């Protein structure tokens, strides 16, 4: 074991980290060869398991350079559970993977504390994971994160394009800034082209860049799932890479298009600043960022008032951002406000 430690891998540090995460997650089964989750089918008539996996992308480099690792795990959970939610499924459990060059106990605990926070926000159980210490694979202080989640739904109640109709309203749920998308462009504009510091503050933003860029992705499970279970949501787009254009386009049937009116919601200041500093076109903006909407729900007009009221009660900020019209799977955003 001493020889392995000299080669750059500290097994005892890994064991200690597992014990700390057991305490944080209140799951004594962590550390087994496989994660266990007792499956109670309950009211499900034709149960379907829905899975999702994702990472955080180059937002990790911002966290590493800022030395702030406490919220990046929330992003990891969010990117996975929001995708499963968009299928109409209830996320059940989560596993994480942390690949790291050298296991720094404080850094790793901060990262995985964020994962535990995310699973709590999503109402899912952290049942396992992997921490791989790989000297020479990553530069000192650098790491990578990946996550995996499984949810459940009734096959007949999965959200699908067939549920959508002309006139359905598109409700946008406010994002928490950039979430976890477009960071290769963000970093290129701010740090490579214009040499900003993470301690700098842009004109429209409340805090410095490190805190603005590391705002964690919102997790929408607890506010949206009850509405899915009531049959009030017809389809969902989780707005990730590709922005509104690509992600809303994924949920449309062949005979419908989506029209958004950008005057109906505020675009976050950070995105307007990036547009100005980077000399971005509106086309660049809408194909890269969420424009302030982290999730879009398609709702029949008769259900809009009830859905909006329940979402607001659950703490969401909701905008009637657009509607479905006859067309051929196009997504159009009026840019009057930008």
Commentary on this structure:
It is found in: Cytoplasm. InterPro entries: PurM-like_C_dom (IPR010918), PurM-like_C_sf (IPR036676), PurM-like_N (IPR016188), PurM-like_N_sf (IPR036921), PurM_cligase (IPR004733). The chain has 338 residues and is α+β, with helices and mostly antiparallel strands. The chain has two domains: 2-33 and 43-157, 2-Layer Sandwich (60s Ribosomal Protein L30, Chain: A); 161-334, PurM-like C-terminal domain (Phosphoribosyl-aminoimidazole Synthetase, Chain A, domain 2). The protein is built from twelve helices and ten strands. It has helices at 2-6, 11-25, 59-66, 72-86, 105-122, 183-193, 209-213, 221-229, 243-249, 269-277, 282-288, 304-313; strands spanning 47-55, 90-100, 125-133, 143-154, 169-174, 235-238, 256-261, 293-299, 318-326, 331-334. The strands form two sheets. It has a six-stranded mixed sheet, with helices on both faces. The chain has a four-stranded mixed sheet with strand order 1-4-2-3, with helices on one face. The chain is globular and about 70 Å long. It starts with a helix and ends with a strand. The mean pLDDT is 91.
